[in-house]
Each structure stands twice: as C-alpha cells, then as structure tokens.
From TrEMBL:
It comes from Caldilineaceae bacterium SB0662_bin_9. The lineage of its organism: Bacteria, Bacillati, Chloroflexota, Caldilineae, Caldilineales. The keyword Nuclease does not apply. Residues 93-282 form the ABC transmembrane type-1 domain. This is Carbohydrate ABC transporter permease. It is a multi-pass membrane protein. PANTHER family: ABC TRANSPORTER PERMEASE PROTEIN MG189-RELATED, ABC TRANSPORTER PERMEASE PROTEIN MG189-RELATED-RELATED. Belongs to the binding-protein-dependent transport system permease family. It is found in: Cell membrane. Coiled coil: none annotated. One of its GO terms (cellular component) is plasma membrane.
Length: 297
C-alpha cells in the first residue's frame, strides 16, 4: 500500500457544487420573498398618503365622486389658499410648533435625568422604584385626565401654554428608552471621570449626553410626533380660538351634517410637512437609536 494521502471520492466535488448551488438558490428565493413582501407593505402604507394628497387637490364635486378618481381634473390648487384663509391656520401652526418644541426639550431633559439616575446612581430601592414608575405605563390616559384637569384648573392654567405643556413633560416610556441606552455605555468612562474629579452632573452632561445622541434623537422624534398630533388634551384645556393647535383646527372641517374632505386633507397635508422634515434630517440617528437601545436590558 502507498503511504501517500488517499484521494477523495470522485463524487464529492460535484456533490459540494450541487449543495452550494442549492444554498444559493434558497438564499435567492428568501431575498426575493422578503423584498416582495416589503414592497407590498410599502405600497399599502403609502396609498393613504397618496389618497390624502389627491383629495386635497379635488374640488367639492370630485371629492364625493364614486368610484373615486385618483388624478383630479382640474387640479384645485386654490384649496390650499382657501384652507389657509378659512381659519387662522398660521396661529394654529405656531401654537402646535411652540407646544411640540417645548414638550420635546422638556421631556428630553426630564427623561435623560431620570434615566441617568436609574442607570448609574446606586441607592436603596432603585430597581423597585423604577418598576413602579414603569408600571404607570399601564394606566390609560383616560383614567387620569379628569384628576389632571381638576389640578390644572386649580393652578389657573386652563386655556394657557402652561396647561398645554407642564402636565406632559414627564414620560415613563422616555425614561425607560434612555435608561436602556445609558446601560450600554461602558462603566470605565464613568470611573475615569470620577478619577478626574467629575461630579455626577458633569458625568451626565459631558459623557452621557454626548454619547447618547442616537437615543436622544429617537426620543425627540417620538415626543415631537406625539405632541404635534395630540388632540385629546388640548381639547380639554383650550377654549379660545387663539390657543388652539393644528389637530383642533382641523376639527373645524368636520361639520354636523357634512365633512369638507378636500379642505380637511389640505390641512392634514400641511400638518404632515414638519414631521417629515424633522424625520428626514434625524433619520440616521433615529435608526441607530432604535437599534442600540435594545442591546442590553
């Protein structure tokens, strides 16, 4: 017998090629199925937006035509001017922008401070207190809105910016989101800062916040979108026309016996623009923040 190596069977090489080819085909079909599913989902999600845009350019007659038409003829560009002049939409827009910006900045401040405390400070009962605070997410807003309204009334904040903002500047969800991100930051950075003589606030301000831009951007987008579209709380607090926000302004087009669909869709299109602009500029941080905040419990 020869002492050399034994050659592999002649059938092993073709079998390997067949298996590799079969693996590539399975991967190709998985990719095709995934992309087809995502494409169908994307089309289904964009159809309501396209319908809103189409209806905003229809006149009163075309808005009620059945079967509906997608491309209006003629295009009623004057709907945008009529909607803007029918009500003080510039005032509604400014009120919504002010309230949304104030709530976004305030929640980023309160949630980041609370998250830093729950993630880094060590004190008795920390975990139990965090669980108790997080449990408030299970309480529907409809349960607390009447006591909250009574409290705001006692402070004299009805029909004011104070009433629209102060009761909503705290968020258990935002605290949880940032706490999850803070726990992923290495403890060595905190230890090095302590050796250099940094206080807890300096660690929070100079280390945690600069490293938490993705999570902060994610929370900022969530808060801005929620406050921009918030309808129920402003409906309870605001009574004068000058203090109404955009969602309340859009409700004027819902009459008792008729709905001005074309003007309503114009207002909805205008209200959508700021959210799209903010998401466009912050989408990189948003996607990164969504990915990173779920890494560590």
């Amino acid at each position: 017998m020869s002492s050399g190596t034994i050659a592999p069977p002649a059938t092993s090489l073709p079998r390997t090629r067949i298996e590799a080819h079969s693996g590539r085909r399975r991967l190709l079909w998985r990719n095709v199925t995934a992309y087809a599913t995502l494409s169908v989902g994307s089309v289904l999600m964009i159809i309501p937006f396209l319908w809103m845009l189409s209806t905003s350019l229809k006149d009163d007659r075309q808005a009620y035509v059945f079967p509906p038409i997608w491309i209006p003829s003629p295009v009623a560009w004057n709907n945008y001017l009529d909607t803007w002049q029918a009500l003080p939409f510039n005032l509604f827009f400014l009120n919504s922008a002010f309230v949304s910006l104030v709530l976004t900045v305030a929640q980023l401040a309160t949630c980041s401070l609370g998250a830093f405390a729950f993630a880094r400070l060590r004190f008795p009962g920390r975990e139990r207190l965090f669980v108790l605070y997080l449990a408030t997410l299970m309480i529907p807003f409809q349960v607390i809105m009447i006591p909250l309204f009574v409290l705001v009334k006692e402070f004299g904040w009805i029909d004011s910016y104070w009433g629209l903002t102060i009761p909503l500047i705290f968020s258990p969800y935002g605290t949880f989101l940032l706490r999850q991100f803070f726990k992923t930051i290495p403890l060595e950075l905190e230890d090095a800062a302590k050796i250099d003589g940094c206080s807890w606030f300096r660690i929070y301000w100079n280390i945690m916040l600069p490293l938490s831009k993705p999570a902060m951007a994610t929370l900022g987008i969530f808060v801005f979108m929620w406050s921009w579209n918030n309808f129920l709380w402003p409906l309870l607090i605001v009574s004068s026309l000058e203090m109404k926000t955009l969602p309340l302004g859009l409700a004027y087009f819902l009459g008792q016996y008729t709905i001005y669909w074309n003007l309503l869709m114009v207002g909805a299109t205008i209200a959508l623009v700021p959210v799209l602009v903010i998401f466009f500029f912050a989408q990189r941080y948003f996607i990164e923040g969504i990915t990173l905040t779920g890494l560590k419990g």
